[in-house]
Design brief:
With about 200 residues, the chain is mainly beta. Helix content is about 15%, strand content about 40%. It has four helices and 17 strands. Strands 1, 2, 3, 4, 5, 7, 10 and 13 form an eight-stranded antiparallel beta sheet that branches. Strands 9-8-11 form a three-stranded antiparallel beta sheet, with no helix packed on it. A two-stranded antiparallel ribbon has the order 6-12.
């Protein structure tokens, strides 16, 4: 896992924040922000890019410097999540965004009291319960990057306000490949020519 602060210039961050909190963004209401069923964990989202379609060009342009920081090789999806204070501390359901090898990066547009919870368990592991690896506080202009197969949770702000986060799902290394054996998934050893890329991938393990 990697954490980087002060990712973009303050002017660019303020411009992004102003646009996302204006009435120009078509927010979609979600009954469960973690793709779960039954649990009512409300929030809003807006897709910037998904399935090869650029859905919000203006916001995508404002995120250009974040894209450059991540050195994305292939973007799978980019979307913004808008979660409000619910009157209580609420950790949302553990989940993964996609069930194949990828990287996940969260860019915090504003500071809030709704931490991101990263678990030790990964999709494909056998386990009885989730165990917390780390909690990261949302700080404006901070980005965290981790293995996309690692279970994680968002949470509602503990104090009045809201949590505004951009999620990037992408292939950081185009030479990643998938070994599949039933429901178990394993990242392969990437060796291109004489260059061993597996050490690079360990930075985000």
């Amino acid at each position: 896992m990697k954490i980087v602060d002060n990712v973009i210039k303050e002017y660019d961050l303020n411009l992004l924040y102003t646009n996302l909190t204006s009435n120009l963004v078509p927010w979609t209401f979600n009954h469960n922000v973690a793709y779960g069923e039954g649990n009512m964990q409300y929030g809003f989202s807006n897709n910037i890019y998904e399935d090869g379609v650029l859905e919000n060009p203006s916001i995508s342009l404002l995120l250009n410097n974040v894209y450059k920081t991540l050195k994305i090789k292939e973007l799978i999806r980019c979307r913004v999540g808008f979660i409000f204070y619910s009157g209580k501390t609420e950790i949302h359901d553990p989940h993964v965004d996609f069930k194949f090898p990828h990287k996940t990066s969260l860019f915090y547009v504003n500071s809030s009291t709704g931490p991101t919870v990263i678990y030790n368990e990964k999709y494909g592991d056998k386990f009885d319960e989730y165990t917390v690896k780390k909690k990261i506080e949302p700080v404006a202009n901070r980005i965290i990057t981790f293995n996309g197969l690692q279970y994680h949770s968002s949470s509602s702000p503990k104090e009045k306000g809201y949590r505004l986060v951009v999620t990037f799902n992408y292939r950081w290394n185009m030479y990643d490949y998938l070994y599949s054996n039933g429901d178990s998934f394993t990242m392969g050893m990437e060796i291109i020519g004489d260059k061993d890329l597996s050490e690079e991938n360990k930075k985000f393990a």
